Amino acid sequence: MLKNYIMVALRTLARHKMYSLINISGLAVGMTVFILIALWVTDELSYDKFHKDVNNLYRIIAKGAYFEDGIDGAPAPLANAIRTEIPDVIDVARVMDVPKLVISYNDKAFYETRIMLTEQPFFNIFSFPFIYGNPENALSNPNEIVITEQIARKYFGEEDPLGKILVADNNYQLTVSGVMKDFPKNSSFKCDIIASLKIKGEEFTELESHWGAFMTVTYIEINPNADIEGIVKKMNEIGEKNNCPQFKAGVSFDLQPFLRVHLDGKNNYRVYTDIGDSLLAYSFSVIAVFVLLIACINFINLSTARSLIRAKEVGLRKAVGARRLQLVRQFLGESILLSAISFFLAVVLVEICLPAFNNLVGKSLDINIFDPGLISGAIAIIIIVGIVAGSYPAFYLSSFNPVAVLKGKERSVSRKSSLRRILVVFQFSLSIALFIGTAIIYLQLNYISTKDLGFDRANIVHIPIKENTGSQYSTIKSELLQSPYIESVSSQYNLEAYGDFSTNGFVWEGGVPNYDLTFNVSNVEPDYFETLRFELVRGRLFSKKLITDTSAAVIINEEAVGKMGLENPVGKRFGYMEFDATIIGVVKNANVASLYKDISPRVYRPVQDFADASEHGKVLIRFSEDNFDGALSHIRNTWEKFNKVTPFEFELLDDTYKNLYRKENKIRIIVSIFTLLAIFISCLGLFGLVSSITERRTKEIGIRKVLGAKVFNIINLLAKDFVVLVAIANLIAWPVAYLIMNRLLQNYPYRINLNLWIFAASALAVLLVAILTVSFQALKAAMSNPVDTLKYE
Amino acid sequence: MIDLKNVSKCYSSGKVNTYVLRKINLEINEGEFMTIMGPSGAGKSTLLNIIGMLDSMSEGEYHFLGESVQKLNERKRVDLYKQFIGFIFQSYHLIDELTVYENLETPLIYKKIKSSQRKSMVCDTLDRFQIVGKKDLFPNQLSGGQQQLVGIARAIIAEPKLLLADEPTGNLHSEQGKEIMDLLKKLNDEGTTILQVTHSEKNAAYGSRIIKLLDGWIED
Ligand SMILES: Nc1ncnc2c1ncn2[C@@H]1O[C@H](COP(=O)(O)OP(=O)(O)OP(=O)(O)O)[C@@H](O)[C@H]1O
Ligand SMILES: [Mg+2]
Fold first, then answer.
1. Contacts of A2 in chain B (CB under 8 A)
2. What would the mean pLDDT of A702-714 be, rounded to a whole number?
3. What is the pLDDT of residues A240-289, one digit of tens each?
């Protein structure tokens, strides 16, 4: 029986090549999208599962008050308190990050960016196997480090790494006390060098008694059947008892299961973390299912539209004793077979696309065809797609009455199906909605990457304040200014695009006092505003000539003026703890940080000594337009003259701002590709439908032409219906796209307006493609010679 | 074997009911070779289809070998049908995607006959109809007469007790028609009950009993 079915299925496929091609290619493309996303999502969900007893691992987070979305920091002394006071906690480990360092060994020197500081229990809590050394006494000395296999090879080649000394920033000596296996791909911890928290020396000792600094990230392992809520309660009692200052503002501690860190941790990204995005994983899954569904609909529509082809077979099989259920099974088998063929094609396509896809999502996914999980997943996809696509056609086809079909009563089997129309509308609603969504993402990203930020970011290159740059800054600056290609040079403690600093607790003269008002603080060189071409609104800018400007003057932005309730800010006093200054000027609001943040009150403090600049301290150099190369070589020479330790590095300020949206740009590419594929598959289906109708109406078209119908009339006759359906699809697509995109855009303080024309243009684009698709077939039919078709009949 | 009591069939289109069969009473005994005749549109095919359980009736009772057909569910009805009935169509309907061999095999498959036995039954039949050489051809590679031959072969391969033939020679020229009729006669002699529809007096002469249908009524 099976052989009989398979023979029929294959012969039917072979006989109707075009339709088989449409079905198979549509399903294969849909499955390709689905498989790629499934691989990606599976990988995302597999993160951190390799740790032993991973369900007992938690991260401490702080919630409430100004930590609206929760942060991963906790005060350093909390760990010791937990260790002694909460018996259900087996182990506690704190982690901190450090900026990138130059690490050298003999004559080898590299920047290392992924460095993490922690303490020994880290290796008890997490399962990271060692190749050399013993995790149980790793990091027991302040200068001991653990490195990964890869780093060991990078610095020591084949030499035994244990006991070797690496030098950090030409200053600290770090002894390798352990080499661990490289972090698994699906570990949310990923770093190259693990050093001891104690390497920070004084700084860390101070932190150890500081309940107000949420500077360490704390991980704990608890007893398998411990009462989580009890532990949280005790942690908060500890915080309360030690007068953690943030508690007064309503902050409290909570535990986050470690397994959620990868997907839910996007607000607290650190250099040593590999953080995903659950919203993204969720949205992509939905899109993938939709694309596959669109392909399934093609199958449903084409099978039912072309049911006549199978009607006779159904009638005959019934006439020789087939029960309906047997026929249902036969047709379902056929759709599963088709699904299987498509699947194998899809696997080939996936293999081809995987490198590019990996590049886009920044992963190294691959297909291991012997993985039992993958095999059962494959079987599940084949069967589910086969059933989703094949069920309705199977029940529809098997319902034919043998008497009717054998009499050739076409009318009874080829009636216009309202279901088919609904499905076409559904397909195109999805395609159009995706198209609108993509268009909006494009426009939004385009908007934020070209928006006027309130200062001139073009023609500025910045270099880090490193090594001697800070302490010899004034010499370096005058050296830089020697170049005719360099217009101005100015520095700041931290480039806001990389790391912004904010605090509350300011007091000012007049206006509305608000101790809780949070200010961003930028420490800048007095001529910063000239270099970046800020616009002064009131008062004056800093002047190097006035001694008071280096210590007792501040400039604020317009936003601050409003929030402080000041009418006349210039000349008013402004202070923070022992710091006391006068407001000398107001600058126009500028988006110095990412456009994902609204402008908040900002205070600019003048500084001239950059020896203590933060890791994000930058020298901003404005070069004259079109003279980038000349300026850059001068900057490089200057750097190399003053800084013999760290390799030269630079970045264009414009790129710095563009890079803030790099992830979004990648998402934009992926979503656009999905959208184009969805439209492609939908149109493929449309093409098939119009072909089948044209086929059936060849005779009618011939007669109409003989009677004098024009080509246009024929196209109109065949294509109009479908164009109307696509037009109707807009009615569904527009509001759906509007609701979803409007909701998504709310996350962005700077966003485009959802103008009607975006929707209209998207709809028009899809409609045009649809019209081309249907017209092509219809045109072919309309151009045919009526005598041929009629004679053939 | 067959017992029809007051069987009617009507089609309703909109508000109008059109009766195509009216209160048919008919009894057919095993071993009979019966012919239904009548003008076009009289309801002959409809009656045959109802007897063949391919179509439902609107009113009346139909007993087949003592079973009340109208009371059976699909499954039982199909079981009954495939066990006892073979159907020959006017225009030799064969499954286009299957070869001659596979077309013959299909009813046996639905009867759940084992593969080895199926093979010998198909070979016997191919032999008997002298179409062994054609077994791997597809229907569109056969002439009309050959197709009808295969259609008949398929109808009788499972050795039905009742053979229903709706104008079996309608599409054939007289020479081929005669061969087919001879074959039916032979089958009847071997014990198969046959019910044929025909317009031809000559073909009717092969049968033992003739009923005439006119406008849905049986004429006596
Ligand atoms: N599905 C249907 N709906 C309405 N009327 C139908 C339908 N099928 C058949 N009829 C009508 O039933 C009547 C009997 O049809 P049937 O096919 O039984 O005639 P017949 O005696 O076999 O004619 P012929 O010799 O031409 O084959 C015809 O008048 C036909 O129009
Ligand atoms: Mg008839």
1. none
2. 77
3. 888 888 888 788 899 999 998 888 876 677 778 888 888 888 889 999 99
Distance CA A118, CA A132 (A): 18
Q: How many domains does chain A have?
A: 4
- Same domain membership, residue A222 and residue A183: yes
From CA A279, how far away is CA A269, in angstroms rounded?
16
- Tell me if residue A131 falls in helix, strand or coil: strand
In whole angstroms, what is the distance from residue A282 CA to residue A524 CA?
42
The length of chain B, given as a count of residues: 220
Whether residue A260 is contained in a domain is answered as: yes
Please tell me which of the candidates A4, A315, A322 has its beta carbon nearest to residue B105.
A4
- Nearest Cα residue to atom 17 of ligand 1: B45
Residues from chain A contacting residue B100 (CB–CB below 8 Å): none
Q: State the Cα–Cα distance between residues A65 and A590, nearest whole angstrom.
A: 26
**Looking at the CA of B21, which ligand is closest?**
1
Q: Torsions phi, psi of A451, nearest 5?
A: -60, 145
Q: Distance from A400 to chain B by nearest Cα, in Å? A: 11
Model confidence over A10-47: pLDDT tens digits?
A: 888 888 888 899 999 999 999 999 999 999 998 999 99
Strands A108-112 and A144-148, by their bridges, are unpaired
Q: Are A674 and A708 within one domain? A: yes
Query: Would residue A30 count as lying in a domain?
Result: yes
Amino acid at B41: G
Give this prediction's pTM.
Answer: 0.82
CATH superfamily of B2-218: P-loop containing nucleotide triphosphate hydrolases (3.40.50.300)
Which residue type is seen at B168?
Answer: P
Q: Rounded to 5 degrees, what angle do the CA atoms A412, B71, B7 make?
A: 70
Q: CA A335, CA A388: separation in Å to the nearest integer?
A: 9
Ligand 1 atom closest to B90 (CA): 27
Q: Is B96 within 8 Å of A313 when comparing Cβ atoms?
A: yes
Same domain, A24 and A137: no
Same domain, A394 and A443: no
Long-range contacts of A204-210 (CB under 8 A, 24+ apart): A204/A76, A207/A76, A208/A76, A208/A77, A208/A80, A209/A77, A210/A75, A210/A76, A210/A77
pLDDT score at B126? 93
| Nearest protein CA to atom 24 of ligand 1, as residue | B40
| Domain membership flag for residue A709 | yes
Distances (CA, A) of A418 to A727, A774, B64: 16, 19, 40
Kindly state whether residues A710 and A766 are assigned to the same domain.
yes
Ligand nearest to the CA of residue B200, numbered in listed order:
1
Going through chain B in order, the beta strands assigned E by DSSP cover 2-13, 16-28, 33-37, 59-64, 67-68, 85-88, 162-166, 193-197, 209-214, 217-219
Note down the domain range covering A379.
1-47+277-416
Q: How many whole angstroms separate alpha carbon A255 and alpha carbon A601?
A: 33
Using only C-alpha atoms, chain B has a radius of gyration, in whole angstroms, of: 17
Same structural domain, A478 and A539: yes
Chain centroid to CA A766: how far? 27
- pLDDT 10s digits, A481-515: 999 999 999 999 889 888 788 787 888 988 888 87
Residues A219 and A296 in one domain: no
Q: How far is CA A37 from the centre of its chain?
A: 13
Write the DSSP symbol of residue B122: H
If asked whether residues A447 and A483 sit together in one domain, one would say no
What ipTM score was computed for the predicted complex, to two decimals?
0.83
Residues 6+ apart with CB under 8 A from A70: A61, A62, A63, A254, A256, A267
A333 contacts in chain B (CB < 8 Å): none
Q: Do B110 and A313 touch (CB under 8 A)?
A: no
Comparing alpha-carbon positions, the chain A residue that sits nearest to B112 is: A1
| Contact call for A4 and B106, based on CB within 8 A | yes
- Residue spans of the domains in chain B: they are 2-218
pLDDT for A773: 85
Strand pairing report for A193-196 and B67-68: unpaired
| Joined tokens for residue A522 | 């930028």
C-beta separation of B162 from B1 below 8 A: yes
